Amino acid sequence: MNNNDKISPAVIRRLPKYYRYLGELTKMGLNKTSSRELSEMTGFSASQIRQDLNNFGGFGQQGFGYDVENLRNEIARILGLDKKYKIIIIGAGNIGQAIANYTGFYEADYEVVALFDKNPKLIGMSMRNALIKDIDELEEFLNVQNIDIAVICTPKSVSQQVAEQLVQCGIRAIWNFAPKDLKMPDYVHVENVHLNESLFSLTYYYNQMNKKKSE
Fold it and tell me: On the CB side of 77, how many CA atoms lie within 13 Å of its CA?
């Protein structure tokens, strides 16, 4: 098995897709699959899938393929999905509330334990049993709670400041939905999510298809 620190980020980003499709195979009652079948489902080549999985050890058998449940469990272990994670959300507006209600958190073992906002109309409300607290309580809360992941859903103007406060309080993993790329120390991992970038890419391909139709 290779050193995981040397695994390409592109490989890591493909693993959740394998995990999702293996879950679909499990729901269908299928016990085994092959790289060719996974290729048809995921859109990645069979060779790419085999190379990706070989980074972490040999999970398949020649002539048999992959045991679906075992491979899914192994990918879950690699991704860390065999553990429970506590999450807080900073910003309880539309995006923050949508994320708090995201069923994917609860299908996996993620727990949103609290949201934080400065809007007095929101403070005291609950989202799936997670209380919306005053942002002024954030530092005290983090001093007594063991939080694994913070989600930032604040306006762009305060997102960097909020992120720095989180890091000072010990947070090392940030999922950022604010429309600004955060600048964090190397020991903090940030996933910047820009919904409009995906939409703009879609718009490009849509227009390319329309051009071909009109030619």
Answer: 10
Token pair 């509330």 in the structure block, residue: 97
Is-contact 205 188, C-beta < 8 A? no
The pTM of the full predicted model, rounded to 2 decimals, is 0.88
Do 169 and 148 meet the contact criterion of CB atoms below 8 Å apart?
Answer: no
In this prediction, residue 59 carries a pLDDT of 78
Distance CA 109, CA 4 (A): 23
Q: For residue 128, give both structure tokens.
A: 């799936």
Containing 144, the helix (H) or strand (E) segment is helix 138-144
With H, G, I as helix, E, B as strand and everything else as coil, classify residue 151: strand
Distance from C-alpha of 49 to C-alpha of 37, rounded to nearest angstrom: 10
For residue 82, what pLDDT is reported? 92
- Residue 111 pairs in a beta bridge with 86
Q: What is the dihedral of CA 139, 145, 148, 152, to 10 degrees?
A: -40
Question: Which amino acid makes up residue 102?
Answer: Y
pLDDT for 2 equals 47
Residue 154's CB: how many other CB atoms inside 10 A?
26
Give the position of tokens 């120390």: 185
HSE toward the beta carbon, residue 110, CA cutoff 13 A: 20
Question: Is the dihedral angle over the CA atoms 131, 136, 137, 138 positive or is it negative?
Answer: positive
Please give the C-alpha separations between residue 104 and each of 53, 111, 214, in angstroms, as whole numbers: 24, 10, 41
* pLDDT range class, residue 60, cuts 50, 70, 90: low
DSSP state of 54: H
